[in-house]
Amino acid sequence: METRARRRPHLFPLLPLLLLLCGECPPVGGCNEKRMLAMLPHCGQTFAERMKKVEVWKWCNLSEFIVYYESFTNCTEVETNVVGCYWPNPLAESFIAGVHRRFFQNCSVDRQHWQDPPDEILIPLIAVPILLTIAMTGVVVWRSKRTDQVV
Questions:
Q1: What is the DSSP track for 28-86?
Q2: pTM for this prediction
Protein backbone atom coordinates (compact mmCIF):
# COMPACT_ATOMS: atom_id res chain seq x y z
CA MET A 1 0.00 0.00 0.00
CA GLU A 2 2.79 2.37 0.86
CA THR A 3 4.49 1.77 -2.49
CA ARG A 4 1.32 2.82 -4.36
CA ALA A 5 1.15 6.06 -2.38
CA ARG A 6 4.75 6.74 -3.24
CA ARG A 7 4.17 6.11 -6.93
CA ARG A 8 1.22 8.49 -7.23
CA PRO A 9 1.51 11.11 -4.50
CA HIS A 10 0.34 13.82 -6.92
CA LEU A 11 -3.16 12.27 -7.19
CA PHE A 12 -4.14 12.63 -3.53
CA PRO A 13 -4.30 16.46 -3.48
CA LEU A 14 -6.36 16.37 -6.70
CA LEU A 15 -9.04 14.04 -5.34
CA PRO A 16 -10.98 16.73 -3.39
CA LEU A 17 -10.70 19.05 -6.39
CA LEU A 18 -12.07 16.38 -8.73
CA LEU A 19 -14.96 15.67 -6.36
CA LEU A 20 -15.67 19.40 -6.12
CA LEU A 21 -15.64 19.85 -9.90
CA CYS A 22 -17.83 16.84 -10.44
CA GLY A 23 -20.65 18.21 -8.29
CA GLU A 24 -23.74 16.35 -9.50
CA CYS A 25 -21.99 13.44 -11.17
CA PRO A 26 -24.45 10.93 -12.59
CA PRO A 27 -24.48 7.52 -11.00
CA VAL A 28 -22.56 4.77 -12.73
CA GLY A 29 -25.77 2.81 -13.47
CA GLY A 30 -26.77 5.05 -16.40
CA CYS A 31 -29.85 7.05 -17.22
CA ASN A 32 -33.12 6.02 -15.57
CA GLU A 33 -35.57 7.59 -18.03
CA LYS A 34 -38.68 6.27 -16.26
CA ARG A 35 -37.68 7.87 -12.99
CA MET A 36 -36.72 11.10 -14.77
CA LEU A 37 -40.14 11.31 -16.42
CA ALA A 38 -41.73 10.71 -13.02
CA MET A 39 -39.68 13.46 -11.36
CA LEU A 40 -39.89 16.23 -14.00
CA PRO A 41 -43.61 16.97 -13.46
CA HIS A 42 -42.69 18.19 -9.97
CA CYS A 43 -40.67 20.97 -11.63
CA GLY A 44 -43.58 21.80 -13.94
CA GLN A 45 -46.06 21.94 -11.03
CA THR A 46 -43.79 24.25 -9.05
CA PHE A 47 -43.40 26.50 -12.09
CA ALA A 48 -47.19 26.52 -12.65
CA GLU A 49 -47.78 27.51 -9.02
CA ARG A 50 -45.32 30.38 -9.31
CA MET A 51 -46.78 31.51 -12.64
CA LYS A 52 -50.15 31.99 -10.90
CA LYS A 53 -48.55 35.03 -9.25
CA VAL A 54 -47.98 36.59 -12.69
CA GLU A 55 -50.95 38.07 -14.51
CA VAL A 56 -51.72 36.12 -17.69
CA TRP A 57 -51.26 39.13 -19.97
CA LYS A 58 -47.67 39.44 -18.65
CA TRP A 59 -46.70 35.84 -19.51
CA CYS A 60 -45.01 36.96 -22.73
CA ASN A 61 -42.79 39.44 -20.88
CA LEU A 62 -39.80 37.39 -19.73
CA SER A 63 -38.71 40.01 -17.20
CA GLU A 64 -41.93 39.35 -15.24
CA PHE A 65 -41.12 35.70 -14.50
CA ILE A 66 -37.42 35.18 -15.31
CA VAL A 67 -36.65 34.09 -11.74
CA TYR A 68 -39.39 31.44 -11.85
CA TYR A 69 -38.21 30.21 -15.24
CA GLU A 70 -34.60 30.00 -14.10
CA SER A 71 -35.71 27.99 -11.08
CA PHE A 72 -37.75 25.70 -13.38
CA THR A 73 -34.76 25.16 -15.67
CA ASN A 74 -32.45 24.45 -12.73
CA CYS A 75 -35.01 22.01 -11.31
CA THR A 76 -35.21 20.05 -14.57
CA GLU A 77 -31.43 19.95 -14.76
CA VAL A 78 -31.01 18.71 -11.18
CA GLU A 79 -33.78 16.11 -11.45
CA THR A 80 -32.31 14.85 -14.72
CA ASN A 81 -28.80 14.60 -13.29
CA VAL A 82 -30.01 12.88 -10.10
CA VAL A 83 -31.31 9.91 -12.10
CA GLY A 84 -28.09 9.65 -14.09
CA CYS A 85 -29.20 11.33 -17.31
CA TYR A 86 -27.45 14.15 -19.09
CA TRP A 87 -29.23 17.47 -19.52
CA PRO A 88 -30.68 18.53 -21.83
CA ASN A 89 -31.80 15.31 -23.42
CA PRO A 90 -34.66 14.66 -25.84
CA LEU A 91 -37.10 13.57 -23.11
CA ALA A 92 -36.34 16.56 -20.90
CA GLU A 93 -36.56 18.89 -23.90
CA SER A 94 -39.92 17.38 -24.80
CA PHE A 95 -41.17 18.02 -21.26
CA ILE A 96 -39.89 21.61 -21.33
CA ALA A 97 -41.52 22.14 -24.73
CA GLY A 98 -44.82 20.97 -23.23
CA VAL A 99 -44.51 23.57 -20.49
CA HIS A 100 -43.75 26.19 -23.16
CA ARG A 101 -46.86 25.20 -25.11
CA ARG A 102 -48.95 25.50 -21.96
CA PHE A 103 -47.75 28.93 -20.89
CA PHE A 104 -46.32 30.65 -23.95
CA GLN A 105 -48.31 29.42 -26.97
CA ASN A 106 -49.87 32.86 -27.48
CA CYS A 107 -46.52 34.66 -27.38
CA SER A 108 -45.12 35.48 -30.77
CA VAL A 109 -41.80 36.93 -31.67
CA ASP A 110 -42.35 40.34 -33.21
CA ARG A 111 -39.89 40.61 -36.04
CA GLN A 112 -39.47 43.79 -37.97
CA HIS A 113 -39.72 43.35 -41.68
CA TRP A 114 -37.09 45.56 -43.22
CA GLN A 115 -37.66 47.02 -46.64
CA ASP A 116 -35.71 49.38 -48.85
CA PRO A 117 -36.66 53.05 -48.67
CA PRO A 118 -38.36 54.56 -51.71
CA ASP A 119 -36.17 55.56 -54.66
CA GLU A 120 -36.67 59.27 -53.90
CA ILE A 121 -34.74 58.74 -50.64
CA LEU A 122 -32.40 55.93 -51.68
CA ILE A 123 -30.87 57.62 -54.76
CA PRO A 124 -29.71 60.79 -52.92
CA LEU A 125 -28.35 58.65 -50.05
CA ILE A 126 -26.16 56.80 -52.54
CA ALA A 127 -25.35 59.65 -54.95
CA VAL A 128 -24.33 62.38 -52.47
CA PRO A 129 -21.42 60.45 -50.85
CA ILE A 130 -20.18 59.34 -54.28
CA LEU A 131 -20.26 62.89 -55.66
CA LEU A 132 -18.55 64.26 -52.52
CA THR A 133 -15.80 61.64 -52.83
CA ILE A 134 -15.20 62.54 -56.48
CA ALA A 135 -15.20 66.29 -55.67
CA MET A 136 -12.75 65.88 -52.76
CA THR A 137 -10.46 63.73 -54.90
CA GLY A 138 -10.52 66.41 -57.60
CA VAL A 139 -9.64 69.13 -55.07
CA VAL A 140 -6.72 67.07 -53.70
CA VAL A 141 -5.35 66.40 -57.21
CA TRP A 142 -5.79 70.04 -58.21
CA ARG A 143 -4.01 71.27 -55.01
CA SER A 144 -1.16 68.76 -55.45
CA LYS A 145 -0.42 70.13 -58.91
CA ARG A 146 -0.22 73.67 -57.54
CA THR A 147 2.32 72.94 -54.75
CA ASP A 148 4.99 75.10 -56.40
CA GLN A 149 2.81 78.24 -55.88
CA VAL A 150 2.01 77.62 -52.20
CA VAL A 151 4.31 79.56 -49.83
A1: TT---HHHHHHHHHHHHHHHHHHHTTS-GGGTT-GGGTHHHHHHHHHHHHHHHHHTT--
A2: 0.54
